[in-house]
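hey so i finally got around to running the thing on that chain from the lab meeting. sorry it took forever, my laptop kept dying and i had to restart like 3 times. anyway pasting the input first so we r on the same page abt which one it is
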Amino acid sequence: MSIRLNLGVSKKIGLENYGSAGSSCNVELELDSSSLDHPEEFQRKVREAYAACRSAVEEELKNHRANGEPKQDVRPTPPPSMEYRNSAPPERTENPYPVSPKQLNFIAQLTKSVRGLTAQKLDAYCQVTYGRTCNELSARDASRLIDDLKAAKSGGKEIA
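ok and heres what got predicted. didnt touch it at all, straight out
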């Protein structure tokens, strides 16, 4: 008779501009039930499986740490100005790291603090600058928008 052992390791790291990246590894082992008769051998197998998972998770996150941001987000870096005004917006691509609820809440707070800025004007700015509405932004673009709103709040940037 055999037993199944299911174990996993997950880890999340913080990245610049309110971003984060995570990785997880789950393994299911089928062991002979007699392995429970030898606790030391059983514990060794469990430790080896955990070590393999931890190593896989760390290797995956090492790529994120080295680059400062996830590799999967391949959207081109939008310009800080509104250069798309007289041309087509950037091509829409899949958004693997969408704007977080915390970012959206902070954007809403900042929008209220910028004189003359409404949610509709902000959505229009996002469409022109990032090719998406505020709710469709990537986490990276939302971070840039937050920086723009902070600058607009202090009078250093105009968001029309």
